[in-house]
């Protein structure tokens, strides 16, 4: 069981509660978290996009550690978020193939919405950039 941190109001009282065996996250949350990050930034450099993807994987896996201070006790602690220990996320964040597989999967998920995370080159700096764009399909005329 993982630990969960609950913070209460201005008193900064912290309660650590145990998590039940119910899965709170799923592997598709990596895409959701990445998309939230990408949408909030509109345009991403390739380096930032890959860094956000890695952070999204770590956050969903529960491998990120969140430092906080217990003010009333004077202790510093590191707590992982509440996750399902049996969650399987197949993401190789250290390879170009992993990033390519993630983009293909993400774009397949976005396809029904006519959206795509598209790579483009910045005309001024020449750097690779990513942006969420609308995919325009050619119009079909019926004769």
Give the proportion of residues in helices: 25-40%
Tally of domains: 1
Rg estimate, integer Å:
20 Å
Q: What is the CATH-assigned architecture?
A: Alpha-Beta Complex
**Total helix count?**
3
The rough form would be described as globular
In the CATH scheme, what's the topology name?
Answer: Aspartate Aminotransferase, domain 1
Cα distance spanning the termini: 64 Å
Main sheet summary: 3 strands, antiparallel
Say how many strands there are: 7
Structural class of the helix and strand makeup?
Answer: alpha+beta
Mean pLDDT: 74
Q: How much of the residues is beta strand, in percent?
A: 25-35%
Please write the CATH class name.
Alpha Beta
Q: Could you spell the SSE succession in H and E letters?
A: EEHEHEEHEE
List segments where confidence is low: pLDDT < 50 over at least 5 consecutive residues. 1-23
Widest β-sheet, arrangement of strands: 3-7-6
Please tell me about this protein's structure.
With 143 residues, the protein is α+β, with helices and mostly antiparallel strands. The protein has one domain: Aspartate Aminotransferase, domain 1, CATH 3.90.1150. The protein has helices spanning 29-41, 46-61, 96-110, and strands spanning 3-8, 13-18, 43-45, 66-70, 75-79, 115-121, 128-134. The protein has a three-stranded antiparallel β-sheet. The protein has a two-stranded antiparallel ribbon with strand order 1-2. The chain has a two-stranded antiparallel sheet with strand order 4-5. Helix 1 (29-41) packs antiparallel against helix 2.
